[in-house]
């Protein structure tokens, strides 16, 4: 799982059926101090509540994502599985 900040939304006019009715968001990985690390990427939102600026947990493993979506053929690699309220390191 990766801790990420939501940068914005993705709009698609043509998409696979698995994406129908689900939000696609651009996310930026962050470290425990909430500093940006790595490159941003697109993730499907499974929480229905994540939005720009939110801190989220992203599952980035294809077979785990397909298990959650209950679709063995889903072409999805990154799935937002939770919105983070607080990060505490210590």
Features:
90 residues, mainly beta, OB fold (Dihydrolipoamide Acetyltransferase, E2P), five-stranded mixed β-barrel, 5 strands, 9% helix, globular
Describe this structure in words.
The chain is mainly beta. The protein has one helix at 62-69; strands spanning 2-10, 24-29, 41-45, 55-59, 79-83. The chain has a 5-stranded mixed beta barrel with strand order 1-2-3-5-4.
Radius of gyration: 13 Å
Q: Supply the CATH superfamily name.
A: EutN/Ccml
Counting structural domains, the number is: 1
Task: Give the % helix.
Answer: under 10%
Q: What's the CATH first level?
A: Mainly Beta
Percent in strands: 25-35%
Q: What is the N-to-C succession of helices and strands?
A: EEEEHE
CATH fold name:
OB fold (Dihydrolipoamide Acetyltransferase, E2P)
CATH architect. name: Beta Barrel
Alpha-beta classification:
mainly beta
Biggest β-sheet description: 5 strands, mixed, barrel
Number of strands: 5
Number of helices: 1
Mean pLDDT, to the nearest integer, reads 89
Q: Judging from the principal axes of the Cα atoms, what is the shape?
A: globular
Q: What ranges have pLDDT less than 50 throughout 5 or more consecutive residues?
A: none
With strands numbered from the N-terminus, the spatial order across the biggest sheet is 1-2-3-5-4
Distance between the termini: 19 Å
